Every structure is written in C-alpha cells, then in structure tokens.
TrEMBL record:
This is Bacterial alpha-L-rhamnosidase. Pfam families: Bac_rhamnosid6H, Bac_rhamnosid_C. Residues 532-589 form the Alpha-L-rhamnosidase C-terminal domain. Transmembrane segments: none annotated.
Amino acid sequence: MKTKILFPIFILLITGFTSFSQLPPVFGPEYKKIAQKDELTRVFISPVRIMWTSDETGELVKNPDVLLKPGNSQSDMSRVTQFCAIKSTETDTSSILLDYGKELHGGLQLVMGGSSRREPSLVRIRFGESVGEANSTTYNSDWLMGFSTDDHAKRDIVMEIPRSGLIEIGNTGFRFVRIDLLQPNTTINLKEARAILRYRDIPYLGSFKSSNPRLDSIWITGAYTTHLNMQEFLWDGIKRDRLVWLGDFHPELKTITKVFGYNEVVPKSLDLACEQYPLPNWMNGMSSYSMWYLIIHHDWYMQNADLDFLKKHKNYIVGLIDLMDSKIAEDGSEELSRFRFLDWPSTPNTEGVEAGYRALLVWALSDAKTLCDILDEKKSAQTCLSAIKKLNKNIKDHNDLKQAAALMAVAGILNPKKACNDVIAVDGAKRFSTFYGLYMLDALSMAGRYQDALDIASDYWGGMLDMGATTFWEDFNIEWKENSARLDEFTPEGMNDIHGDFGDYCYPSYRHSFCHGWSSGVTAWLTENVLGIKVIDPGCKTLKIEPHLGNLKWVEGTFPTPMGVVKVKHIKQPDGEIKTEVDAPEGVKII
C-alpha cells in the first residue's frame, strides 16, 4: 500500500451554456418548448491527494501525480505529454484511490491519452463519501424492502472507457473515487481524472466569524451542506434520498434564509410538493411532514414577505388546516395517521414520539394561524385556535426524549427551563440528533442556557468535523467517535470505520448519507442566537439584535434581507459588557 500527500490543487473551470440565446442556429424557435437550460454550474476539480495505489513496485501505476495537475478536458496522444499509466496483468487488476478534499455533488471526467488496446477497456469506478465507502462493494440491507447503497444514485459502476477522448461518469455525492482497471494485460493512459462539481453558483450573503475558529468551521460546513442539496429542487441528501422531504426541508430553509436569503429553489420545491401530494394526502405520506409544510411557509414569509406566493398556496394551507382539525376530537385526542414520525433516532421511544408529534402539531397550527391572519382567512384562523385548545387538553409526557421535550418547549406547552433541566441538557451532546438538534439548541436558548448550547454545538457538530467531515451527516451519535478512524483515513485493524460500522434504520453502513441537509440547522442557530439576529416583522423590516457570546470574546457576521445585507459586530469589553456595531440598509429597522 502506498500513500502520497501533496499540496492541494483545486482547478476550477466553468462550462456550459448560460442562456438559450447561445444555442446554435440549427435549433429553431420550436426548441424553446422542449429545451431547458441547466440551472446549475459545472466546475471541474482536480484531486488533491493520491490516497493509495495497489502497486507497491511503481511498475503497474506510473506517474499518478499527473492527475493532480490542472487540466483542460482535451485528450492528447502526443509524446511530450505525461500520463498516469495504469497497467494490469493476466491475474491482477491495478487500482488508484483519489481524494478531492471536499464532499462534492456530481461525477467524474476521465480524459484519455491512449491505451494498449484498440478496443475500449473495462474499468470499475467507485464513488465514496468516505475512504471506506470508496473501497467497498455495494451493500444491500434487509431493512424493509432491502435497500442498497446505490439505489438512489449509482456509486459502483463497471463500464468500458474509450481508448482516447473523454468520458463522464456518475451523478452522486462523493469525496473519493477509486478506479480499477479490470481488463487483463492492458495499459491505459489517464491524462485527467477530474471531479465534476454541480452546484448553484450563488453568493454566500450571510457570514459568521468569531474568536472560536471551531464554531466558524461549524457554521460554514452547515451552510455548504445545504448548498450542495440546493439542486434543481431542495433535496435532503446528494447521495440519497435526492427528494423533496418536507421535514428535512425546515432546517435547510432556516439555513438558506441565514446564508443566501431568497432563492427560487424554496418556492419551486414547495410548489412541487403540493403537486406530488394533493390534499387529502399527507406530504411525503407522513402527517408530521404536512405540519412542517405550514411551519416552512411561516418562516419563509417572515424572511421575504412574498404575499403573492403565500396567496398561491392559500387553498392548500386552508384545506390542510381543515383536514387536520377534522381529525382532532373535542377531548384532545386525534387520529391524523397511525405513523408518528419525528426523526429516526427517536423512533423506539413511542411514548416520547407521541408527545413530540402532538407538540409539533400545536406549533404548526400556531404558525398556520399567523398565516391565516396575513391572508385574512378569519374562519381558518379561528379553526387553528380551536384545534390548539383541544390538543392542549391532552398533553403527553415527553418520556425523557430530547426531541419531544424540545418540540414541547418550542410549542409553548412545556417550560423551557424544565425541558432543559430534566431532559435536553442531561448528558450534554449525548442523545442529540442531526435533524432535531436545531430544536434542542432552540430550547436551550429559550431557557437562557446559551453557553451549554455552544458547548453542545462544539461537541456534537464539531465531533463530525473531528472525524473528517466536510459536510454534516444524516445521523451521528457522539459515542461513535470512540475508537473510530476518520472518514478520510484507512481504518486500522481493531478500530471502527466511522462510516461502515454505524448507521441504522434505512441508512445502515455505507448507505448512510454524509451530506444531509437536515443536519445544517446549527448554522441558522449560530446566526440567530450568537450573532443574535432575529426577524421580528415580515420581510425583515424589523430585526432584533440580541447577541449571546457565552465565552466568546467577539463575533461578527452578515445577514441577508430583501433590502440588502445587514452587518453586525459584537466585542466583549473587559467589564463583560458587549459593544455592538450594526450597519443596516435603508428600510430595515433595528431593535
């Protein structure tokens, strides 16, 4: 085994049409009806490190460092150009493992420089979010329908590649790529093996910097996690499930509003969700995700005050309120659906899930009431109040479930201090979850326990960074760190593979998504509670600035509004007082 680390080289090249006006003249006007511009940008990134080659002699894999150089996507058969030559024998394949340094969404472009065969050559391409995954075979679980590691996006591909020219492979989430030459007695010459990053080319208008670089890394990692999932629609994961899930949507929405402000992926995805799940269907087939739909609309309107968009969804919102109310009895019992889902880690605690589910319903109806007031739907607003009153006749016990206690605090049916003292703050980051961690942090803030929240954020989300994460994961338990190797390392004998040895439910082992948008909520929390920027009036017309620095010496950052970017800086003085500087655009009132 041979490992070589070189100085990172990121080569970026933007390609593709930018508008229909650039289509060749041979395409007449009628093509505008069937052609669609790619909304996203393609960028090529050279690998930053040769992780490993299968050849210890240097004879079967020659000049691998060539692949780290800048490329131009042009095949070359000249004698002056150096290639990475990969050779197989009668009995042995040859392999190379490449590290692109960051989690990416897209595929791989191979640029060829000839081969020993006139025919195509057979290779195996494996994409991985971790070193372990890139070296693994396809994993099939026996959970429910027998899910595979590549049933949403193909990550293990056996295919023929051309002798010269180029070929592009794959569309998934990855950081590592392994290439195996399977054709016996063959030599292929690789000129380039560049990752294709496919993303929305949009500015990061929000920012966060502090006296603690670890928190800064957490903020930007959460922002990037959601950014990668802002594809044609807002996905929950770039490897899987690559779908618009309304629960996963909410933490992503919170992050988008703090980092990017307005982006069309949000209304576009909400429109799609209503088309896919018309009433009386529940969003994604889950009643709790229809609750999140109402909360999302509330938070989106508070950020942008887009009344036309809200009116567009009025009939669905009002119909959903009526549907929910029709299933709530006078004694507070309800029969929305049998399936009560919060997040996967909470699933075994059925009593706690019941309490959290009902709290989520109260929260959703409360936000829906605000929406009805804006829409002047007085009858529906009253329906929301009546439904909440009925539900609060029958408040369930959280059963020591942190997710449930957090929702109950946010919904106003459990004192936040009691929720935190009894459940949420107990054992610190243990029993936190990537999805509901945002609401646990929110509950800690409501209880005034900002330093505890900062410590947990550092331990929990920072714990993923400690294990090599460049995006945040679908699930994480702080205990997984014990005796585990980082995702960007080979797992030594006797240690755990942080990717392959963990995961549960529908995401066991390498099926576990290492870029999942619902885990990004910590970014929004840092902006709202540490930088201290909260929206008071719709459209950000009034912002409340109330920083909570804990043990930080200073923090500064920016926040996007429809009127422009707000700049804030807080410096802790020797006497403990905080000096604040705010630069806000015209039209934004600061409290």
